Protein: Acyl-CoA synthetase
Organism: Streptomyces glomeratus
Amino acid sequence: MTAGRSVTVDGTLRRSARRTPERVAIQYEDRSWTYAELDDAVSRAARVLRESGLGPGDRVGAYGHNSDAYLIGFLACSRAGLVHVPVNQNLSGEDLAYLVGQSGCALVLADPDLAGNLPDGVRVQPLRDADDSLLARLAVTEPYDGEEPRGEDLVQLLYTSGTTAQPKGAMMTHRALVHEYLSAITALDLSAGDRPAHALPLYHSAQMHVFLLPSLAVGAQNIILDAPDGGRLFDLIETGRVDSLFAPPTVWIGLAGRPDFATRDLSGLRKAYYGASIMPVPVLERLKARLPTLAFYNCFGQSEIGPLAMVLGPDEHKGRMDSCGRPVLFVEARLVDEAGQDVPDGERGEIVYRSPQLCEGYWDKPEETAEAFRDGWFHSGDLAVRDTQGYFTVVDRVKDVINSGGVLVASRQVEDALYTHERVAEVAVIGLPDERWIEAVTAVVVPRGEVTEAELLAHAREKLAHFKAPKRVLFVDELPRNASGKILKRELRERFAQV
């Protein structure tokens, strides 16, 4: 690699710092960093990590809440040639031990209130709120000036959501993520004038790699929040400090359900991004009715591709609100059958990808890597149809399709039908073992007020063909989700298998 030509994640920040050094890059609580200050902090943190005995390629876990320190830790790993391993801050016990152990972390950057959850013997560096924390040591450390990593070097292990199996670490290179940033910037109309709030967990690839890093690359002013608190977000929007927001459907549902949603002045919100799981069409229609000038973007993808793969832009929603859009700049996508052959437009097939954004495979899992990467394409596990204009509509995950009496039923269509009932707050449709039907189409519903199983079954039968309508409705207080907002249907199937 010719010196000075490496494509690196931290290089995106360095260029912004040289272009607009005095512009505010990040605000978190009462701390504010200009681009020049943030870039300098990253270099000092990189030296802290290297002087602790870590070398190129060593894995460094990140087990913390949203903060400026979390971001600095990630970019410092990038600059120091280390491999960052983001860990869900809600994990503990065996799940936490698995990620730290399977990745082979030599060190874990941790918030003090979480560090006690880590397995015995794990080396810990506090991120903040301690005298020896990474933030505290910046003032007494010189900037790192060592050899920069190469574009083909690993920079992060992005562990998959684990909705159907044990998580796998997608091996992301600098070059792959920088390509993904360019795709995000072009598809999502990101610019230096944006004022985004980053309220979803930074350990998750969508918030970090689709929004925060691309926003830093273009020189935007960013606010990092601990969580997507509706009152705090509405205050920031009303005062003009925030004009764009990403959230999964579950958060948008919560925001739309707040009593003050109808009365607060939200006209300053220019761009609304949703993704991580399927947005029910009836919910999107309600949001658009309340905020008719707001530009909505549907973001679709998965960890292995960085994660953005497709986008449905604001001017593309009309007539196709259930679509996830078309592939972004650096992504090529096809639909194939079980034999790997292309399926015609309008027919269901599995999405496969080819892209410089793709991971190099799964960390220390050669069999799973070989299964996912076949014939030069990555097999996503998502089932979709494509129309003649190239728009994709996801109908299900391969493992979530329900075999009811020998007929395949896509759970999303059943969910959309039930969401049109005013008493349905949330719903997940699964297949449960059944002697007659093989799998019985079953709706698991979080109700809004009083509603009976008979009412919902009758409503579904009015909207759906008889074989698609649920055979049963089960009521719960809440649906199990991972941190990115995806419903864990695997847990529902296990929970209700014997009911």
User: Anything to note?
Assistant: Residues 1-398 form a domain with the Rossmann fold fold (CATH 3.40.50.12780). The chain has 15 helices and 25 strands.
